[in-house]
Design brief:
2 copies of one chain form a homodimer.
Chain A: E1 2-13, E2 16-28, E3 33-37, H1 44-51, E4 59-64, E5 67-68, H2 74-84, E6 85-88, H3 100-110, H4 115-128, H5 144-156, E7 162-166, H6 174-189, E8 193-197, H7 201-204, E9 209-214, E10 217-222
Parallel strand pairs in A: 3-8, 3-9, 6-7, 7-8
Antiparallel strand pairs in A: 1-2, 1-4, 4-5, 9-10
The structure holds adenosine-5'-triphosphate (ATP) (2 copies) and magnesium ion (MG) (2 copies).
Chain lengths: 223, 223
Amino acid sequence: LISLRQVERVYRMGGGEVQALAGVDLEIARGEYVAIMGPSGSGKSTLMNIVGCLDTPTGGTYELAGTTVHELDDDELAGIRNREIGFVFQSFNLLPRADAVTNVALPLLYAGLDRGVRQTRAEEALRRVGLGDRLDHRPNELSGGQCQRLAIARALVNEPSLVLADEPTGNLDSVTSEEIIILFDELSRAGTTVILVTHEDEVADHARRQIRLRDGNIVTDRS
Amino acid sequence: LISLRQVERVYRMGGGEVQALAGVDLEIARGEYVAIMGPSGSGKSTLMNIVGCLDTPTGGTYELAGTTVHELDDDELAGIRNREIGFVFQSFNLLPRADAVTNVALPLLYAGLDRGVRQTRAEEALRRVGLGDRLDHRPNELSGGQCQRLAIARALVNEPSLVLADEPTGNLDSVTSEEIIILFDELSRAGTTVILVTHEDEVADHARRQIRLRDGNIVTDRS
Ligand SMILES: Nc1ncnc2c1ncn2[C@@H]1O[C@H](COP(=O)(O)OP(=O)(O)OP(=O)(O)O)[C@@H](O)[C@H]1O
Ligand SMILES: Nc1ncnc2c1ncn2[C@@H]1O[C@H](COP(=O)(O)OP(=O)(O)OP(=O)(O)O)[C@@H](O)[C@H]1O
Ligand SMILES: [Mg+2]
Ligand SMILES: [Mg+2]
C-alpha cells in the first residue's frame, strides 16, 4: 500500500538547512497496524504528512497503492485524501468558529453527502469518542482532551481505509486514552491500515509493528 | 500563597450549563510542588486559569498572597501575571509569525527590559530546553514537542515565583520529558511554587503533593 524509497525532506531557511527526513525506506502493507516513535524533532510528523499526501518529499519517491503521489495534480490528491485517508493532526486543526458536529461533518461535506446523513454520522462519531454531550460546543468551549477526541472523530467519520494519527492520546488521561486505543484496535481488526505516532509505550504496544526514528532516519523496525 | 474557597466556574450556553468547577476548596503554600490529575474534562485547565488570574470564578473566592483577586482591576491583574506568574498553556498560545526568540522574550518586553538583555535571556531560556539550534524558527517551522518546549521557555524566562504548567510533557518523548521534569524539580528546589497538570504518573511522582479532580471537584489530595 505504502512504499517510500530514499525519501528526503529538507527545509531551507535563511540560516541553513534542516534535514527533517534523511533517506527513508519504508514499506507498509494494507491492513498493517504500525506505531512510529522517536525523539521530539526526529521527523515523525514530517513522515506522516508525506504518507498522508499533505506534503511532498524533496528527494526520493512515494507510492500509495501503486500510484506515484507527486505525479498527481491537486484535485486528484485532494480526492484521495478525502476518500481514503483519515488524519488526526498533532495540533488538531479544528475550525474555531464551528461547533463539534460541524467540525466532524467536514469530510462528509466534501464527500457530497446530504445534510441529514452528515448530521447523523457526525453525532454517532462524536458519541463513539465520548463527546455525545458536547455536540454544540465550539473548540474554545472544550477541554484539551475533548479537542483531541474531536479531531479523532473527524478523522474516522468517513470510514477511511488508511488512518494516520499523530500523537492521538497526548492530552488524554489513562482511562480515556485506553478507550481511544481500543477504537484504533477495532479499526485494525476491521481491516483499516492504522499508523500511529506516539511517544507512549502503552499505546505503541497495541500495534503489530514498531518503527523508531532518529534524526530523520529509521533506526529500528520490529514486528 | 493560594487560597480558593468554594470556587465555582459555571459556563452558560444555549442548551444549558456546564459546571466546570463545583465548589473547590484548596490551599497551596509558597514553595509547594503540586501535581493536578484527573479525567479529560474534569476541570483542571479551568482551575489553572483561575489560579493564574486568567479567569474569574462565578462563585466563591480566590486569594493570591492575601489579595482578593477579583477585586483587582485589569492593569493590576496584568502586572501580577507578568511579574509573578509563568503559565505554560495546554495549547501553547504562541505568536505564529514571530520566531522562537521573539516568542520567548515577550514577558521581558512587558517587563520593560531593554533589547540586549531580552535577547540574551531569551536565548539562554531556549538553550535550557534544548532549542538552542532553533532560535530563528517560527512555530510552524517547529515540531509539536519543540513548540511545547518553546511555551515552557517563555513561561520561565522572567523567573516567576509561581509556575503553572498545563500538560507540559504531553507532546514529548520520554527522554525529553525527563529533561523538562528535571527543570521543574530544579525550580522547586530554588523556592519557586510549581503546579503541574499532568495525566502521566511518572511526572506526577516528582511533585510532593498530588491532587485529583473529578467532575469539577477535588476527590483526593495527598502528600
Ligand atoms: N467556554 C466553555 N463553555 C462551555 N463549556 C466549557 C468551556 N470551557 C470548558 N468547558 C467545559 O468545562 C469542562 C472542564 O474543562 P477543562 O478544560 O477545565 O477540563 P480539563 O480537566 O483541563 O480536561 P483535559 O484533560 O481534557 O484538558 C469540560 O467538560 C469542557 O467541555
Ligand atoms: N517548516 C519547517 N521549516 C524548518 N524546519 C522545520 C519545519 N518543519 C519542521 N522542521 C524541523 O524538522 C524537524 C522534524 O520535525 P517533525 O515535526 O517531523 O518532528 P517530530 O518527530 O514530529 O517531533 P515531535 O515529537 O516534537 O512532534 C524538527 O527538528 C523541526 O524543527
Ligand atoms: Mg510531531
Ligand atoms: Mg485541560
